[in-house]
Target: Four-helix bundle copper-binding protein
Amino acid sequence: MSVATMTTNKFQTCIDECNRCSQACYECFKACLNESDVNARKNCISILVECAQMCQMSSSLMSMNGQFIKDHCQLCATTCDKCAQECSMFKDEHCQKCAQECRTCANECRKMAGI
Model:
């Protein structure tokens, strides 16, 4: 059920996953900045912000039933896959949880892109 128009939204699962992933990425970003090996995490920190932004944009486009949602969701899936790969290189809990959220989001975005 969409929030404002109260109609069924076929994109809602993907919107929710994108929002969760974006939140996870921002939380992980903040936690990574406080790790002692922050220099080793530069690529990870960079992709975390990129992934969060991509997920936010995907969520917004799906909410308005934008023209390019399939293309954007495919790119979002690719970005989430890369973020999951980077995060999974670090063994701390926040990176492992973020990597899982990214994988889940990537799967939902691939489904969305295939509609």
User: Anything to note?
Assistant: The domain at 12-114 is CATH 1.20.1270.360 (Substrate Binding Domain Of Dnak; Chain:A; Domain 2). The first helix runs from residue 12 to 33. The chain has a mean pLDDT of 93.
